[in-house]
Amino acid sequence: MSKSISAVKKLSRNLWWSWDTEAKSLFKNLSPLLWERVNHNPVELLRHISADELEARCACELSSTIDDVTKRFEDYMTEKNTWAAEHAPQLVSSPVAYFSAEFGVHESLRIYSGGLGILSGDHIKSASDLGLNFIGISLFYKEGYFRQYLNHDGWQIEDYPLQYPESLPIEKVTTADGKDLIIEVIIAQSTVFAQAWSLKVGRATLYLLDTNIPSNEMHYRDICSRVYGGDQNMRINQEILLGIGGIKLLKELKIEPAVYHMNEGHSAFLTLELLADEIARGNTFDEAKAKVKEQCVFTTHTPVPAGHDRFSRDMMQYTFSKYVALCGMEMEEVLRLGAENPADTSGLFTMTVLALRLSRCANGVSKLHGEVSREMWKHLYSTGDPKEVPIGHITNGIHTKSWSSGFTERFWKHHAKSLDELFASRESAEAVLARISDEELWCLRYQLKRNLMDYISRYLSNQLYHQHQYTTPYKPADSSRSAKSALSPDVLTIGFARRFATYKRAPLIFQDLDRLNAIVNHPNMPVQIVFAGKAHPHDDAGKEYIRQIVEHSHRPQFLGKVVFLENYNIGVAKRLVSGVDVWLNNPVRPMEASGTSGQKTVLHGGLNLSIMDGWWCEAYNGTNGWSIGSGEEYDNYEEQYRFDANKLYEVLENQIIPTFYERNENNLPVRWLKSIRSAIATIAPVYNTDRMVKEYTMRYYLKEPRP
Q1: How many Å apart are CA 358 and CA 607, to the nearest integer?
Q2: Secondary structure of the chain: what % helix, strand, coil (to 5)?
Q3: Helix (H, G, I), strand (E, B) or coil at 495
Q4: What pTM was computed for the model?
Q5: Please, what is the Cα angle at 560 between 585 and 147, to 5 degrees?
Q6: Phi, psi dihedral angles at 627 (to 5 degrees)
Q7: CB 211 within 8 Å of CB 226
Q8: Is 603:634 a contact under the CB 8 Å cutoff?
Q9: Which tens digit of pLDDT belongs to each residue from 619-641?
Q10: What is the DSSP annotation of 558-622?
Q11: Which residues, 6 or more positions from 3, have their beta carbon under 8 angstroms from its beta carbon?
Q12: Tell me: the pLDDT tens digits for 275-325?
C-alpha cells in the first residue's frame, strides 16, 4: 500500500476531516456521486473504490492535496502549544470524562436524535481544538435514530436501517493481548456484558458501549438498538449501561479522569458506581457521597418538570436490588438520592435530582434557563429564594468550523487571516467586515441561496420516490403536488427546521391562512418557507404537526412556495442554515432551554427571528435580527398562541419583508446587509463552543475555578 493511500485511509478514520474543508473536498472528489450515496462517509466511500483506482489517482491528481491535508492533520494532532496547555495543564495530563446519551458528530453516524446530541458533538470537537484531554462516553446504537419518510398524507414513517461497524470510522476496543474488552453490569438479577468501540474525534476519543454480543440474553442484546427507543424498562437499562457501564469501562482502560461531566441526567447512575468504589475503599456512605460530589459536574437541558427522567420505586427496586447489595449500600439510601423529598422514598426516582445531589456544580444552558432551573429545583435546597440555589448557567454554542460550508469558509479566508481572526472578538470581526463591501457580502448570500435552491430541487425529487414507496394502493401519490418547487434565490427565504416537539410550535405561522397567503404571495415582495424536522416515534402530536404542514404545503396558494424536506439530519441542517435568509424559532417561552440552530446560520449571513427564549434573550440587541414579542407569557396556551402568531405576522409584514426588498440605486438591500454585519459581529464571536468549553473548563472542570 502506498504512502498516499495509507494517509487517505488514516484520515478517513478520524472525524477531524469533518471540520476541515480541504479534507472533505479530498473525499468528495474521489467520487461526488458515491459521496452523496454513502451520506458523506469516507470509510464507506473507500470500500467502494478499488485499490487500483485509488493507487492511480493518489499518484497524480490527488497527490499534492493529500500531502497538504495530511501535514495539516499531523500538525494538529501533535500541537503542544494549545489553549489547554497554557490555561489548564492539569486537564492535559488527566482527562475530562463527558457522558452523554447521544453524540451528533456527523450525519453518517446516527447516534443522535436532536439538539442534545448536536451539542455533545460540537462540545467534543471544540475540546479537541483547545487541546483538552477529553473522553466522551455514549452507546453504539446499531439501528441508530430513525430515517424519516412521509407518506402521501404527510404522516411520518420510521425506518431503522442497521449501522455496520465495518462501514464506520470506529475500532473495537481490545485488551493488551488483543481480545475484545468486555465489561459487566448488573441489571435486575442478570449480568449484562458490553463491548466497546472507539471513535477518534480529532485529539479526543469517543467510546461507545454495545451489548449486541452472543454472551448476552437475547433481550439484553437490544439495549443499544435505538436512540431513546423502547419503554421505561429499556430506558433504565440504557441509562445503567451508559452511567455504570461507562465508569466500568474507564476503570478497565485504567483511565482516571480529573472530572466527570454528566450532560443531562441520562448518565447520572455513574454516581452510584463511583459511590460503590468509594465504599469499597472503606468510606462510609456519607463520606463516599462527599468524595463523589467533588468529582462530578452536571449540565441540565430541560426547563420543564415533565421532561426529566423518572422511575418508579418498584422499577428501581427490581432493577437495582442485586447491584446495591453487592456494592454494600442500602436501597433506601440510594432511593433518597433521587427522591425530591428525601424523607419520602415512595414516589418517583428522578435522575436530575440524583445528578444535582452528587455534583459539585451544576448549570443550565442559557441565562434564562439557569433562572428557570433555580426556580424549578429550589425545594431541593430548602430555600424559597432561587438566587440561593447553586445552579449557574453556561450558554450553549456551536462548533463553527463544523457548520461552515466550504464556500462560506473560503469567502471568510479570502478576507481574513483565518476563521479564528473573524471569531476572536467583536472588534476583530468588525475589522474583518470593514474590509468587505456590500456587493461582496450580497454575492455570498446569493451564491449560498442558489446552492440551497438547487439542493432542495434534487432533494424533493428523491422525496417523491419515497412518497411513492410509502403510498397505499388506494391513494396514489400526485407528483405534481409532492415534489415540484418554485423556490427562487431572489425571494426572501425563511427556514424552520428542528425536532418536532409540540412546544416548538412548528405550525404557528399557519395560524391565519389568509394573512399568510398575503405574505407569501405578495406581488412585489414574496416569501418562501422551508420546513424540516422529525417527531419522536411515540409523539403522535408532533407527527400531527408535520402532517398539518405538509397538508398546508399542498394548498394551491402555497404550492411550490412552502416545502417540507423529509429525513432531517446534520447534513440537511448544514444546507439549510447556510442558505436561508431568516431562521425562524417560535417555541413556548421559556421551554427552549437554549437552542443553537439559529447560531449556525449567522456565519453564512442568515438572520434570526425568534421568540425571546433560550440564547436569543442574551444575543438580541435590536440590530442583529428580530424578536417575536418581548418575552410576554400568558397562562392560557391558546391566548399565548394567538398573541405570538400575531406578533410573528407583524414583524414579518412591517420589518423583515420591507427591509429585505428595500434596494438602493445599485440594487443592494443596504439596511438588510447592515443587520447581517451586526449579527456576525455580535453573535459569531460569542455563541460558539470554543467559548463555551473554555467556560466549562475555567468555572467547572478545574477544582479551583478561575474567572
Answers
A1: 41
A2: 50, 15, 35
A3: strand
A4: 0.96
A5: 60
A6: -110, 150
A7: no
A8: no
A9: 999 999 999 999 999 999 999 99
A10: TTTTEEEESS--HHHHHHHHHH-SEEEE-PPTT--S---HHHHHHTTT-EEEEES-TTHHHH--S
A11: none
A12: 999 999 999 999 999 999 999 999 999 998 888 999 999 999 999 999 999
